[in-house]
Amino acid sequence: MAEPQSQQQRNIVIVGGGIIGCTTAYFLARHPLFNPSLHKITIIEAQSIASGASGKAGGLLALWAYPACIVPLSFKLHAELAKEHNGAERWGYRTLHVGSIRAKGKVYGSDVKGEEKGGGEEWQKLPKTKNRGKTLASIPKDLDWFDQDCIKGYSEMGTPETTAQVHPYLFTTSIFQLAAEAGVQITYGSVTAIDSFDNGVKGVTYEEKETRHIKTLPASDVVLAAGPWTSHVFPEAPIDAIRAHSVVIKADVSPWAVFTEIDLPRDFGRKVEVGEKKRRHALNVNPEMYARPDGTVYACGEGDTDVPLPKTSNLVVCDDDRCQDITDYISSISTPLRTGDVLIKQACYLPHVSSGGGPLIGETGIRGLWMASGHTCWGIQNSCATGKLMSEFIFEGEAKSAIIETLDPRRFL
Ligand SMILES: Cc1cc2nc3c(=O)[nH]c(=O)nc-3n(C[C@H](O)[C@H](O)[C@H](O)COP(=O)(O)OP(=O)(O)OC[C@H]3O[C@@H](n4cnc5c(N)ncnc54)[C@H](O)[C@@H]3O)c2cc1C
Fold first, then answer.
1. Where is the signal peptide (predicted)?
2. What number does CATH give the domain 5-90+167-238+354-411?
């Protein structure tokens, strides 16, 4: 009788050290069938852990995120991991309230003339309509960081029972650290090809980061977790990329995550040169803001496709004007944000499935080649379920903790 797969030698290679690669490594190393004398787990990362969106995202977790088949599992696993590993201190895990506000922004000392609509790609966590048409309700007392005369409407979106947050960079690097302590190894290099034999994987070819030498790493299993770069590694993968900017501002405010719909005055902002084109300000904008336990507020804006995904995360171009737009938008309705120092301006690329839907989690149809990619704007929220389900696929042959046929990569390939 053939040995069960879990009792065979396995060389599991995870391509990408973002949040998905790291949670996959963590749950593989914690799986009851993981046997360090038989199983080797290696993350291969092109630059550094969390150097893509996983280190630059907002970090909101919500029971109303999507897709519904993995959200509750992931939300629960986040809470359990935080409890087990002191996530409150290590990665800023906390439950919090979430609200949505409609507001009319004001111009403060802007010396530049604003224009008409345009410029952005929709990728926000909420459908446009969700913010609209809500009943006017009084804004909660402790949500006191917005200028009262700007607020036109408020609605509750989440309570500490349904919404929480993590600091994505700290979460990803901590989970990597925990996986490394459990025996996961790391190699730094860019995977250039998946090597296969008889319709099964046998390893990966990569360019070593330091020496730029081309090398190979043997593998019985390869997990594609390279986020927006997944199609660079495996061209059949239907994963696209949208760039998004964000800022972090010093402001010690009450623990809220806030979605907005801000009407800007017509004389707001600047006209920005983008190559040959002039990008114009929209007059209705939707920045999201997340207060963090470290006395900062993270804010992000719309996505764009002005600059294609570069080869590696260290080559991502951050457009200062787009960061300034976000700062101007949120400053137009909040005094603490207007007066706080801007500590970080950054950009990254969001992975999404070309046809919509996803993320894609599971088998690819090539023996030993797995996919865990295309997490759109909910990859932090859905990371834990993805890692756990991947560990079940690899050691038990199927997803056990959730029913995820709709996310089967073979339906999209
Ligand atoms: C502005 C913004 C805000 C967001 N806010 C939230 C939020 O509040 N809540 C939430 O749940 N989600 C949020 N997200 C979404 C979340 O950030 C992503 O879904 C998630 O980070 C994707 O993780 P990943 O590991 O798939 O990809 P990435 O983080 O991009 O990681 C991929 C890794 O693969 C590496 N890599 C690439 N090519 C190769 C190669 N050839 N060989 C080896 N390694 C390679 C990269 O260097 C990188 O480290 C946000 C995203 C953005 C852009």
1. none
2. 3.50.50.60
